[in-house]
Design a protein that fits this description.
This protein is of the alpha+beta class and 65 residues long. It has one domain. Helix content is 35%, strand content 22%. A three-stranded antiparallel sheet has the order 1-2-3, covered by helices on one side. The longest helix has 23 residues.
Length: 65
């Protein structure tokens, strides 16, 4: 899957967030480290979503951009 991320320079290097996943943020000393960290954060975020929705009625929709 691909997610849009927002990178912002910070005092510690880079802050990075995923606008499509509220609360999904990370950081890194370099852009490469920030990107690796946000990839892990997205994976953890999605694991929690799967856990919280387990046993619920789930459907997918497609939205035209």
């Amino acid at each position: 899957m691909k997610y849009t991320v927002v990178l912002e320079p910070s005092d510690e290097g880079y802050a990075v967030s995923v606008p499509g996943l509220p609360g999904c943020h990370s950081q890194g000393a370099t852009e490469e480290e920030a990107m690796a960290n946000i990839a892990e954060a997205v994976s953890d975020y999605l694991a929690v979503v799967r856990e919280l929705t387990q046993g619920k009625l789930i459907r997918e929709i497609e939205i035209a951009a």
